[in-house]
Amino acid sequence: MKRLIISLFVYTTVVFATTIHVPADYTTIQAGIDASSNGDTVLVQSGTYTGSGNKDLEIGGKSITIISASGATSTIIDCENNGRGFLFPQEQGATLILDGFTIQNGTPNDGNDGGGILCISGNSLTIKNCIIKNNQNSGLYFSYCSPIVINCIISGNTSEWWGGGLNLDQSAAEIKNCLISGNTSPGKGGGIVVQHNSPNIVNCTITENSAPEGGGIYCYQAFPTVTNSILWNDAPEEVYFDDSFNSNSIMIAYSDIQGDSAGIGINNNGTVYWETGNIDTDPLFTDESGGDYTLQNGSPCIDAGTAFFVWQGDTLVNLSPGEYVDSDPDMGAFEYDVVSTTEDFPLTPFKFVLHQNYPNPV
Prior knowledge:
362 residues; mainly beta; Pectate Lyase C-like; 2 domains; nine-stranded parallel sheet; 1 helix; 2% helix; 32% strand; globular
C-alpha cells in the first residue's frame, strides 16, 4: 500500500524596521520623516536644522522614532520664528518618540498654540532628553493626547494667553525629571496650565516662571499630582486654582513648595491634599541667577524624596535604586552627586534611564 506524503511548507515574512539617516540618506529631517514607515527610526546627526521654511515638521500619522545621534545640545532645530518645531496632527493610534533635540525660536503661523511642539488628539507621544526654549504660543501644547515628557528642559518660552511652558488640555500627561523655568504668560500659567485632566508630575523643578495668575501651575478644572518636586520663586504664586466652573484639586507629597500649603491660591474652589514629606525651605540651587538649578551640597532637597509612593490606589512613584544616588531620591529634576560637581557637562537632567528599545522588530 502506497502512502501519500504531503509536505507543507509555510513561508513567513519578517518585516524589519529601517533606520533612516539624516543627512546621509536625506538632507532634511522632513525628508527623512516622509521616507519612513511605521516602526522606522529617523536618526539625525548633530548640527543646526532650520526646519522647512514656514512649514512645521509634520509626522503624518506614522508610528516612528526620531532621535539625535549626539543629544540635544548638539542637535538643534531652529525655527527662526517662522513656523513651529513639530506638528503631530490628529491621528488615531500613532505612537511617536522624539529623543534628544533642542527646539527653539518656534512661532506658529497657523494661529494655534505650541511654538515648540503641538500634539493633537489620538497620538501617544514620548518626548525625552529635549530642550524646548524661546518658543512662542506655549513651548508645548497637548490637546486630547497622552504625552510622556521625560528628562527635558522647558525654558524661556512665552504664550499669548495661557501656559508659557506647557499647556495640557484634556491630556493625561506624565511629566518626569524636567526643569520648567523662566517661562512667562500674560494671562494664566507661566510654567504649566492644566485643563480638565490629572497629570502626574514627578521629580520636576518648576522655578522662575511668571504670569498674572498661577506663576508655577494654573489649574482649570484640573487635578494634578506632584511628588519629589521643587516649586520655588514662581510669581505671584506656585499654584493657583481657577475660580470659575467646577472645583480643582492638587496632591503634593515629598516636595519643596515655597510658602507651604498657604502659598497655594485655591480661590475657594478646590482642595489641596497636603501629604507627607513636604517642606518649605530654600532648595539652595547652585547658581539660580545663572540658570543652574542643580543642588548645592547641604540642600534640604537632597535625599528628601521617596522611591515609592501610592495615592488613592495609583502608584505615582516607583524608582529602583539605580535611578537615584544615595539612600533616597532627591527632590527636583537634578539628582545631586558630589562626584559630578567636578565634571564639565551640559546642564541637563541627571536621571537618564535605559528603557526597552522601541520599536522592537524581533
